[in-house]
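Forwarding these from the shared drive since the link keeps breaking.
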Amino acid sequence: MKKNHRIPTLVALFLLIGGVAGGVILIKSGSTWLAGARPEITPKQVKITNVSESGFTVSWITDEQTSGFIQYGAEGELSFIASDDRDQLSGQQGKFWIHHVTLKDLKPATNYFFKINSGEKIFDNNGQPYQIKTAPTIQETMPPNDVAYGTILKQDGSPAEGVIVYLSLANAAPLSGLTRASGNWAIPLNLARLPDLSSWATYDKEASVEEIFVQGGSIGTATAVTVTKYDSPVPNITLGQSFDFRKESSQPTPTAVPTSASSGFSVSKQESSSSSANLTIINPSEGEEVNTSRPEILGTGPSGETLTITVNSPETLTSQITINGDGTWNWIPPTSLSPGKHTITARLADGRIISRSFTVLAAGSSDMPSFTASPSATITLTPTPTATPALTPTSTASGRISIPSTEGGIPKPGYLTPTFLVFMIGVVLVFLGLLTNILF
């Protein structure tokens, strides 16, 4: 007599539950197992810079163009998202080789934790979130306005857009800025702090040495050395080369007015070196084409002074603003500017005046993001490679990003493969359970 062998229903259910549980584990760890981080999107040379009482900057490079943003929060809760500086300005998510993310509106003297999202994968600091403490509030008066600026060029002589300029002063925390479409960069030295962030850094405005490192990723790097006497402007820096600008003979003529092909500032060296004549327009540069109808106008001037801003074009707009305590000012037109050429004029009450012309492109005439400056994006501070060691990120489980954002975070799609795999495992186990009960 043939004996029937049956697998009890309880065992079949146990196998089914085990398969589902295994699938859940695969979902949690499967992003790495099934879709491991490709080396091309792994963040390299991660640097934390521009640490102030209300923010800091995180920068890194990747071997291929990819999206990138920061998930961050205090007390270990990474509940906020900060996008790349260019994404914050354009309102769209771009893909870059060089990444520069500025976190803003933070609390002073507070520990913040963050992870890097690169190409929809999450990277941390060897299994732990990166950690940085914001600077304390400084009670002393901020030093007078002092801006270092210049232009970065590619090896073919064209402007190098979107590269990072790291600037280091002795006995000061590292600084940096991101170049605009014209290749222009600007870094306010008066915002530099001591390495421990406890107070403003002190330096000689004539003879302190500045070390500059330009990170251009796949298009090359450059180094330069200058002194504070010759940093407004720093002569053009070309990627792939090294420069020593400490000798006066290597500087431009003091009265020469830079054009958009050089620094893009409509102010002479002689004017900018005078503490009583430091009215400048930093963005947009002379003749620049901007892909936004409401560009952010950025400049410097005597702190606390009233500035009258006038835009002349088909329409005329006039506004009055007060220059910030750190000597910077920014203004956005209250209404959209029509496509075409516009001239902006900034005037102080004592009669000092500066003008700048730029062109607003018509909608659809360019596929480039609207890259205008902001106090936290273009005039931000970051490190030199010698001051801040590069950190090595490690990949953690990625999956779908659904963290609420207060700073323009962009939701990311989830991974289909783990879900489909779990579904198929469940179907197979149910089928096997039914089949064994029928046969045995």
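-- next protein --
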Amino acid sequence: MGRSPTSTRRGVAAVVMVVLLLALNLIIIGMVLGGARDQDLTVRRLETVRAFYAAEAGVNMAVREVMVGRDEDGDGGTGTISDDGDGGTDPAFGAARVQVTMSVDAGQTTLTSEGRAGQADRRLEVTFAGSSDLADASGLLASYFIDDGWPSRLDDIDWAAAPDATGIVSQLNWPQTSDATPFWFGGPYMNYGAEFTGNILIDHNGSWRFYTYSDDGSKLWIDGIEVVNNDGLHSMREREGRITLAAGEHEIMVRFFEHSGVHGLIASWRGPGRRGKEIIPAEAFSH
């Protein structure tokens, strides 16, 4: 006995429905898996970005330590960040962490910053000439003092206090700049004092002239003798002084303060064997 046309049509319809349901399930599964893959890629991208920015922040932190000559994060080293073997204390930037190590080779310093976020790891390296060790670096020792009392002369700064920042400078050569530019990295742009100490190499016996060009006040001493007095509140102004020196190394100290507004400081010299007045070169300074 054969099937009726109606039964046959019902059977075909049922099969078609099953196929459609299977196809729909496959589409839904594909969408779910695709969404999961997209979500996974998004998470990875976010982790990569976080790791990169953490590494960049770590470099900035380490460079600041080198510039001010101080261990800011307390890991026992200047120019390193969380290089103390304890990963749990690494600085955190949201879900990211960072560690910066430092190496010195052939007169070059390399900072290596590793940012980590989830499974992402990004590394940045910065290399610059010279040593980050204050004992090995050439130039003058710099001590910076923040003063909230609106100083109007050098004696208004408490030079006996612990400095707010320290570092090394190769020259005293800061042309006049705007009142929105800090005098040192991370420092203020007004109400501060700066002291520079070390040695200056005199290459010929004779009479030497020294100059400070500053806004606001400044003074310069050689072997404890005040040579240039350019103190007080004023715009960029130059004052000079003369001293007789023997060839060789002599102690030098320069103090400078800023009240408010634009600021700048330049120290120059003129002496035997020199063509004329010039900014004191970096090779003349040591400490």
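The helical segments are 5-68. The first helix runs from residue 5 to 68.

- D.
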